[in-house]
Design brief:
- It is an enzyme of class 2 (transferase).
- GO terms for molecular function: ATP binding; protein serine/threonine kinase activity.
- Among the domains are: about 80 residues, Phosphorylase Kinase, domain 1, CATH 3.30.200; about 220 residues, Orthogonal Bundle (Transferase(Phosphotransferase), domain 1); about 100 residues, no CATH class; about 90 residues, Beta Barrel (Thrombin, subunit H); about 120 residues, Methylamine Dehydrogenase, Chain H (7 Propeller), CATH 2.130.10.
- Helices cover about 20% and strands about 35% of the residues.
- The protein has 14 helices and 61 strands.
- A six-stranded antiparallel beta sheet has the order 1-2-3-4-6-5, covered by helices on one side. A four-stranded antiparallel beta sheet has the order 10-41-40-39.
- Helix 6 runs antiparallel to helix 7.
- The longest helix is centred in the middle third of the chain and has 35 residues.
Length: about 950
């Protein structure tokens, strides 16, 4: 079987079939990527607008434990859903083979499934119901994580418009079977109370009880009329069903029941017997029993509630509660025997469960931090730390402390843009715009614009817009906006939250550089209206001569971009690109002086704008891109050149910015000089934003990077998906993906208060060390070294002889002095003073071994480090192997600081970092750019030419900091 669907997807073979449709393995022909196509068996009998809403919502889903939906295509009356191909095996196959899993494993997978359900249930506007949770719909990936497949991906598809969920006996909740199973009054809970009431008026009288709406519980709407007898009456047994988040909770409970016991639970919820103590712990059994309560009101009311029950399992253990009560009311009558039997044996029993919970929470914290949600990362890490710290609680795990340290970022002293938090929109963004000073940003989605205060980190207002993805918004000032409002072009004051004026209906807007003039055009019109921004007076209109701007066939959800609609500084010239490839500069004051750049062409995408007397543009097609520069005053094209790579261009009163492949430059129109702003090595730039001092660049490998004004790379982050939107202004930045409603906010952080000294950043060196007396710092490499005093005065600069023959360098500190010890391959060893660089000694010896073998000692351990082996740690007491340290980095130094051990490394990429270890060699903190430990202080070396320092933070201090963020 091999056929092509929609000219894009090649169906290779059928890999599954069910009541809802047939599942095929396919291939994306252009991307050469394996995909899964699910062909829906049901008839497409849904309004296109409703279908498009569902399509947009589902394509916007992005979560670690669910497959990504890429596309919906229709061919020959069949709707295909295109999604990720998940490598792995479904749990029904494991159960068929009799595979057994441990309780900790199942708890881990339960938490992952609940994360996925919480994500689906909370999708705006009403959530997405899975509807058929069972082992067959859960895949175990090769990495040990799960993926919840076959969620209800066609909510708008159904027979006669009705939506029905999956049905698997034993896993389906009682409400799946209809209320006869429960022998109780019919109750229909719908997502929208108004919808229920309207339908009820037409078809049947519903009691107050049946009209109750569970707020905050996502629900799948069922047409009541489809559930009544064919004559539409309400006589006889009601067949109405209620499906909401709690129905999925039941299915998950039943699935966990099967995985733990090896047996499918009884079909009738009333007949399900609790899991015995020999199957799982009583606490886990209680969670599953609550999830499978016949009455939905008795179950967990949300996936988040059930997730917290698992995460805090050890805190809610009945034995812990009992012991806490005993402690609270204990008296001197308690005997030593009771304490030993009732306390210490119990404490040992709970260690494994608490550690598993902490490991899971630490992993969730790391995931939140990677997504840019710092508050969530801190919150998860704080949950991993025992609350009461009594003898019945397990000690704080190293993983929990490291998660909290990472989330707080206390050891990252570099200047730059750091993750602040995430903001979730009701749906995926269509546009993101920042205010001039960067105090606010505007996010356009379907079909509103949200204004967000970055300083206070709160939403200011949401305003309804035209129902088109083309709808624009501009900041006129820091607190005034112009947007394509639902009733027409609208100027709005954010301070007074009032409309200043409104004009005619329009989608696409432009504002002059001086913010005095605005131009507006509606998507299906061939004329432009010109407004005076101050009061909204219509001061002109320009007919485009039956030319139309490019737009999608259905612009409700698709904004193809790649169009020019731009005013110059004074608002006297308007540049417009058209669907026929034309590009014209309209003179709004004198039509006879219009400038036609292209009357028509085969270019399909345009970008451009005005900078002073110049108009710059980029025109792209499949195999060629052109950059052009027009002098408006001279009515002449000054420069034009082509490339096989796509150009990205932005132009405003500040300058012209052009991206070609992996290079972003500022283009000087007067001199044609180019100034490099960013260079991205072997990846292409996909979007950029230029601020006053910094540049934000997105690349086609799902990363975004910040550069300073000297084109120096400051930081790079991978966000796991395309960064379609990047916006930078002032000290804030916003990054977003057109299929994900979550926006990542970043804030510029500076750490000048931790400065130890500054040096010339152009001086190349491998290491930096502070002398024992703290008076000087040495920067050194095999080429030579520099010495600075703490007043940042350069004291010495020495070139080392025969640099290519140097075997090793070590900065040595003893009780009174410190020096650089350099060893050459011929056995020569020289020592240079850290105070002034003078040669202290020179000696000849045997040629050193070429394996760079070293030994380090702490109070309890001996550490062996060889060039091509991972460092090994041996106990000084027993001489037994205690641990193996980092395998993918070279160990350079080991320092004992109190009860801590600090190890320093050079990664395979040449980056220096350190690890803070406890006395059991568990990692407590990652120390990026660590270069030295001086008098208990950590010293960090940054390529920006700064040595910075900070002290070690105790666990108590970290918890206090975490509480301020929570």
């Amino acid at each position: 079987m091999s056929r092509v669907i929609a000219g894009i997807y090649e169906i290779q073979k059928q890999i599954g079939s069910g009541g809802g449709g047939i599942v095929y393995l396919g291939r994306h022909l252009r991307l050469e990527k394996q995909v899964v196509l699910k062909a829906d068996k049901r008839t497409l009998d849904t309004k296109p607008e409703a279908l498009r809403r569902e399509v947009d919502m589902l394509k916007g889903l992005s979560h670690r434990y669910i497959p990504q939906v890429y596309d919906f295509v229709q061919e020959d009356g069949v709707v295909y859903t295109v999604m990720d191909f998940i490598d792995g095996e479904s749990f029904d196959k494991f159960l068929y083979r009799g595979t057994c899993f441990s309780q900790p494993q199942i708890i881990k997978w339960a938490c992952q499934l609940l994360e996925a359900l919480d994500y689906l249930h909370s999708r705006p506007p009403y959530g997405i119901l899975h509807g058929d949770i069972k082992p067959a719909n859960i895949m175990l990936r090769p990495d040990g994580d799960i993926c919840l497949i076959d969620y209800n991906i066609a909510l708008a598809l159904g027979e006669n418009g009705a939506v029905k969920a999956g049905f698997s006996r034993g896993y389906a909740s009682p409400e799946h079977y209809g209320l006869d199973e429960q022998n109780q009054t019919a109750a229909v809970r719908l997502m929208n109370r108004k919808t229920l009431q309207n339908r009820a008026t037409e078809t049947l009288k519903v009691s107050e009880t049946t009209q109750t709406l569970q707020s905050k519980v996502p629900q799948t709407e069922m047409d009541v009329r489809d559930l009544l007898p064919s004559d539409g009456s309400s006589k006889g047994s009601p067949r109405a069903v209620m499906l909401d988040a709690r129905s999925d909770i039941y299915g998950l409970g039943a699935t966990l029941y099967h995985l733990l016991s090896g047996h499918r639970p009884a079909q009738k919820a009333q007949e399900v017997k609790p899991l015995a103590a020999n199957v799982c712990s009583p606490e886990v059994s209680a969670i599953i029993q609550k999830a499978m309560e016949p009455d939905p009101d008795m179950r967990f009311q949300s996936a988040e509630e059930m997730l917290n029950a698992f995460l805090l399992l050890h805190r809610r253990d009945r034995r812990i509660v009992r012991h806490r009560k005993r402690i609270a009311f204990s008296t001197v009558l308690l005997t030593v025997g009771f304490l030993i039997g009732g306390v210490f044996s119990f404490t040992g029993l709970k260690q494994l469960e608490q550690r598993q919970s902490a490991l899971t929470l630490a992993e969730y914290s790391a995931d939140s931090l990677a997504a840019g949600d710092v508050p969530a990362a801190v919150d998860r890490a704080m949950q991993a730390i025992p609350v009461n710290r009594s003898i019945f609680e397990a000690p704080v795990t190293a993983e929990a402390q490291k998660a909290l340290t990472d989330a707080l970022g206390v050891y990252d002293l570099s200047d730059g843009f750091k993750s602040l938090k995430t903001v979730e929109l009701p749906s995926a963004p269509l546009k993101i715009v920042t205010s001039p000073k960067g105090l606010y940003f505007a996010a356009v989605y379907a079909y509103e614009v949200m204004i967000y205060d970055l300083e206070d980190q709160k939403k200011i207002v949401t305003l309804p817009m035209q129902k088109s993805a083309l709808s624009d918004v501009f900041f006129l000032t820091e607190t005034k906006i112009l947007y394509a409002g639902i009733d027409g072009v609208t100027a709005y004051d954010l301070e007074t939250q009032s409309i200043l004026w409104a004009g005619e209906t329009a989608t696409t807007l432009a504002v002059s550089g001086n913010r005095a003039i605005a131009a507006a055009i509606n998507r299906d019109k061939d004329y432009v209206i010109i407004y005076r921004v101050s009061d909204g007076t219509k001061i002109g209109q320009r007919i485009l001569g039956e030319r139309y701007m490019s737009s999608a066939a259905n612009d409700l959800f698709a904004d193809p971009g790649g169009v020019i609609f731009s005013l110059n500084e004074e608002g006297s010239m308007l540049a417009v690109s058209f669907s026929n490839g034309g590009l014209i500069l309209f003179n709004l004051e004198n039509p006879d002086e219009d400038m036609i750049v292209y009357d028509e062409s085969d270019y399909v995408r345009f970008e451009g704008g005005f900078c002073g007397q110049y108009f710059a543009f980029a025109a792209n097609k499949s195999d060629e891109s052109t950059f052009g520069l027009v002098d408006i005053d001279e009515a002449a094209c000054l420069n034009e050149y082509t490339s096989r790579d796509n150009f990205l261009l932005s132009a405003d009163r500040r300058g012209i910015y052009l991206s070609d492949s992996n290079l972003l430059v500022r283009f000087e129109p007067d001199t044609l000089k180019e100034t490099e702003l960013a260079y991205t090595d072997n990846v292409n730039i996909s979007a950029f934003s230029v601020g006053t001092e910094y540049i934000l660049v997105a690349t086609d490998n799902n990363c975004f990077s910040f550069y300073d004004s000297g084109a120096n790379l400051m930081s790079t982050e991978n966000c796991g998906q395309n960064c379609d939107f990047v916006a930078l202004a002032g000290k804030y930045a916003v990054v977003g993906n057109r299929n994900d409603p979550c926006l990542r906010l970043l804030e510029l952080k500076e750490h000048s208060g931790t400065q130890l000294l500054s040096y010339d950043s152009r001086y190349p060196h491998d290491e930096a060390r502070v002398s024992k007396d703290g008076r000087t710092a040495m920067l050194f490499s095999y080429l030579g070294f520099r010495i600075y005093d703490m007043e940042e005065k350069l004291l010495a600069e020495i070139e080392l002889p025969d640099a290519e023959q140097i075997y090793d360098q070590q900065f040595v500190k003893n009780v009174k002095d410190s020096w650089l010890e350099v060893t050459w391959y011929n056995g020569t060893k020289r020592c240079y003073s850290a105070a002034d660089g003078t040669l202290l000694s020179e000696a000849s010896g045997e040629e050193p071994s070429k394996d760079l073998y070293e030994e380090f000692y702490t109070q309890r351990y001996r550490i062996e480090s060889a060039l091509h082996e991972a460092p090994k740690v041996y106990s000084l007491e027993t001489d037994r192997l205690a641990a193996i340290l980092e395998e993918d980095a070279y160990l350079t130094y080991v320092t004992q600081v109190g009860d801590y051990i600090i190890t320093e490394y050079i990664s395979t990429a040449g980056t220096r970092y350190g690890l803070l270890l406890n006395d059991n060699l568990e990692v407590l903190a990652y120390l990026p750019r660590l270069c030295d430990v001086y008098e208990g202080m950590l010293v960090f070396d940054y390529e920006s030419g700064n040595l910075r320092q900070c002290r070690l933070y105790s666990l108590g201090e970290l918890i206090t900091l975490g509480e301020t963020i929570k």
